[in-house]
Amino acid sequence: MNGAIGTFLQIMKSLSLLIIAMFLVSCDHGLAPPPSVEPGFGGTLYFEKGTWPSPDSLNSLWLFASQVYPLDSVKVVQGLISNPPTIYLYPASDKSLPFNVDSVSYSFSPPVATYKYVGVIQRFANDINVHSLRVVGVYATNDTPPLPIPVIVNEGVFTPGISFRVNFYKPPPQPF
Amino acid sequence: MKALTINIALCLVWCSALVCQPAHGTLKGSIKDAETGQAVVGANVTLQGTFLGAATDANGKFSIARVPVGSYALTVSMIGYERIRLDGVKSVADEATTLDIQIHSSPIQSEPVIVTANRREQSFQEVPVSVATVSAKMIADRNNVTLDDALRYVPGVNMMSDQVNIRGSTGYNRGVGSRVLVLLDGLPYITGDTGEINWETIPMFEVERIEIVKGAGSALYGSSALGGVINVITRETPAQPEFRFRAFSGLYDKPQYPEWQWTTKPRFNSGVIGSYAGGTGSLKYLVSVGRTVDESFRENDTYQRWSLFAKAKYDLSSSQSLTIAGNYLYRTHGNFFWWNSLQEPLRPAESQRNGLVTSDRGNISVAYKEFVSDKLFYTVKGIYFGNFWRDDSSGRVNNVSTSHLFSVDAQATYDMNSSHTLTFGFASNYDRVEANLFGTHPGVGAAVYAQDEMGVTGELKLTAGLRFDWERVSVLKATAQLNPKVGLVYMPDKETSIRASFGSGFRYPAIGELYIESSTNVSAVAVLPNPDLKVESSLSYEVGINRSIGSMIVVDVAAFRNDFKDLIEPSVQIKQYRPNPSSTYEVEGPVIQFDNVTKAMIEGVEADVRVEWWKKWFSTEIGYTYTWPWDVGDNVILKFRPRHILYAGGLLSWNRVRASVDFRFLSRIERIDENLVRLAPIVDGDARVAIKIVDVRASYDLIDLGYPLRIGFNINNLLNYSYVELLGNLGPVRTYYLTVEGLF
User: Fold this and answer.
1) Contact A141/B574, CB-based, under 8 Å?
2) Is the pLDDT of residue B257 over 90?
3) Which of A166, B27, B229, B648 pairs as cysteine with B64 (C-beta 3.0–4.6 A)?
4) Cα(B447)–Cα(B429) distance, integer angstroms
5) Does one domain contain both A6 and A51?
6) Which residue has better confidence, B429 or B590?
7) pLDDT in tens, B261-278
8) Overall domain count for chain B
9) Are A74 and A7 in a shared domain?
10) For residue B603, how far is the Cα from the chain centroid?
11) Is the same domain home to B475 and B547?
């Protein structure tokens, strides 16, 4: 009888240890809601050394994100002035990215949408005319010619790593 | 005069029937436990070479009537006991032969016979590969409604939602092109269009047991058996009429975090299934009807299901039988492909909120079996498996698919002598798919196979087999495959079985993988066909040992290696493509295409320890599998494979009470397809953790109170652990189930 009780107690001890071990390894609850983040995307723009244009042809420099692709002159103007716009500029339409730097990190928060065309645009002169604009870098594939990669901005998601190079001497194919 | 002639003729026929009637005898007796002397209840007593047999009653007694005069080999099998065979048992005309048999308990609480590993009945220790079984009792205890639920507790097996993975064979393909072959009563049960396993149509309430063979099995079963074979064996039609039912109702708990809650209404998962078995004389049948409604813990993930299963067996004689079985399932199911985000994991992505899939699936099979002698028998089986499904979104029909699959398998097993058992046969299949996603395509295949099991010495048994397959899909060039297998089993004593095996496997690409073409509305990603897909193949090697220690402990250890070539996986990339076949221009965007992308090697070890404590009232089992899944092509770890799988369980069975606890652990998947997450896009799709699930349950038999009922209470995911098996799909939250089962 004592032997049976001893065996039973041994079983209960082993079982208790097993159950405690299960609870210990499982008490972290697993996945949890991510902390709230402002939706958008970010990365680094790398400027090829020695390719910066002269100051008189460099009025402004923006990162742009367009929901529309391909673009033409009319779509560019519509995209910038329509309400809501379909083309967004970083840092802002009245501001510019810094000049004559090797690289610049950015964090861009346009509205939630799919942006089919993301790149850097240079403005030559102080007017809103598509003829004074040219695209100097695009987030694109390595193909020839390079093809734009869509960037999707989702609610509560910030996508890092949207980095690409800008070469003022070798701009990508112009969309307009 | 004419009437007289007829009467004389009838009289002659009647008299000749009496004269020609073979003489019969009766075999009866009792089965007792050799150690305790107690009666063994429910033991199966069968006469080899016939369909005659009986099960022992509550007093351990059995009786087999109308046994033709002759000499027979009688076998006794029972879970928890060693299987025994008595040769030279004689049936004497008009006499009852009495046999009092004692059987020895076995420490292994597993099924006494395995049929899948070598296409014939064998004891667990005689099989040269790793095999696991799931019994009907386990299924009932856990309230497993579908087959995939039952497989989650098998060591070395893990489920990625509804996709099964044995020892790392399968990655992420949402079930398409299964690398594990599922058989229903020995016949292939893979859909004709997408080559996937349709778990829900398996009649779980009528399952006797499930056998899981780990490792390549194409040398006996052909295509799809790369990673293993799962054979679902439905129960025999019972000897006595009976009515059984099972009813359950489950309530989903709230999710772990209040911000995840998407509804304030309680969500239920309920069902009822009833089964009646009856028959007269040589004809026995059973019919079951079931209804299940799952409101789900997630939005737009509900399903409603009607199921029907019927099986009839007609004993043409004591050595011939004909079995006809069929099932049908009608289901409507919400479309929940992946979550909206980890902020809202119980709501689907915006594009999936109104989707609904309706499906009709069914099969009918016929099996004829004849014992030509006690050394030779053959079976001829055929199955038709039909699948129809369509998905609707906002009342609009998007995709429709119909597939028809016919399979025939003829097999003979010949016990030549004590040294050779020969198994050989022929198999053939024809399928036809009509779908807007895949087009219209036929497929046809044929195979021959043979295997010899040789007793080299009393302790050493060698198995060698070969199968030749030929297949042609649509207009593609026909391909042929030759798959060998070799197995060795060495049993130096009654407690030890050492095994070694080599086998090969292959899989023809499914029609869905070859021809799918869709600018699907599920995501922004287009799906393109690839008719250039090659056959994927595998080689499996395994060594293992099974050892009983005393009467309470069984240890099974195996080391394995699987080499895979030309694995077909969906790859996601940015590509230029024609938006539809008639387009003259190309666009660029994210594309999913099945491709032969991976050459892989998966090595690992598996250990399973079962211990029975205190007069076998309490049992525990721990199974651990370590795999090293390596992508040889890219020299990185394979995508979507966990490296560690641990399963631990305990069962207390005392008088009328059964209580058990199960724990599952799967290590965090180290590598996934980042392109899929980024381009699909699946928001927070890379969020994943190790899986740690605890399930508990208890049941009580009310038979002592005069009711033939058992009531049970389960809590699944007791700790409400939040995890994903499939990218962007949160696993079920804590759920409480009440079940009632009855047998009348």
Assistant:
1) yes
2) yes
3) B27
4) 9
5) no
6) B429
7) 999 999 999 999 999 999
8) 2
9) no
10) 24
11) yes
A146 and A71 share one domain: yes
Q: 3-state DSSP call for residue B5? A: helix
Question: Does residue A174 form part of some domain?
Answer: no
Contact residues, chain A, for B723 at CB < 8 Å: 30-31
Among A163-172, B101-110, B560-569, B710-719, name the one with the lowest average pLDDT.
B101-110
Asked whether residue B395 carries a pLDDT value surpassing 70, the answer given is no
Determine which of B370-379, B385-394, B536-545 has the lowest per-residue pLDDT on average.
B385-394
Which domain does B29 fall in, by range?
A: 22-103
> What is the predicted ipTM?
0.77
Q: Closest partner residue to B650 among A18, A26, A141, by Cβ?
A: A18
- Residue B10 covered by a domain: no
DSSP output for B337-357: -SEEETTEEEEE-GGGTTEEE
Residue B121 tokens read as: 């009945």
Number of structural domains chain A divides into = 2
Q: pTM for this one? A: 0.77
B671-698 average pLDDT score: 88
B620 vs A contacts (CB less than 8 Å): 14-15, 18
Query: Does residue B489 carry a pLDDT above 70?
Result: yes
Residue A175 lies in a domain: no
CATH number where B185 lies: 2.40.170.20
Instruction: Say whether both A93 and A22 belong to one domain.
Output: no
Classify burial at A4, counting beta carbons within 10 Å of its beta carbon; exposed 0-12, middle 13-18, buried 19 or more. exposed
Tell which of B254, B340, B341 to mutate to test the A interface (max A CBs under 10 Å). Answer: B341
The verdict on A58 and A140 lying in the same domain is: yes
Give residue B349's pLDDT.
Answer: 87
- Tell me the count of A-B CB pairs closer than 8 A: 92
Mean pLDDT computed over B623-638: 91
User: Per-residue pLDDT tens for B505-552?
Assistant: 889 988 888 888 776 444 557 788 888 899 999 999 999 999 888 778
Query: Would residue B474 be called left, alpha or beta, if left means φ above 0 and alpha means ψ between -120 and 50 degrees?
Result: left
Taking alpha carbons only, the member of B234, B133, B66, B128 closest to residue B465 is B128
User: Rounded to whole angstroms, how far apart are CA atoms B569 and B640?
Assistant: 11
The size of chain B, in residues, is 744
**Which residues are paired to B553 by β-bridges?**
B549, B611
Do B58 and B176 sit in the same domain of this protein?
no
Same domain, A1 and A85: no
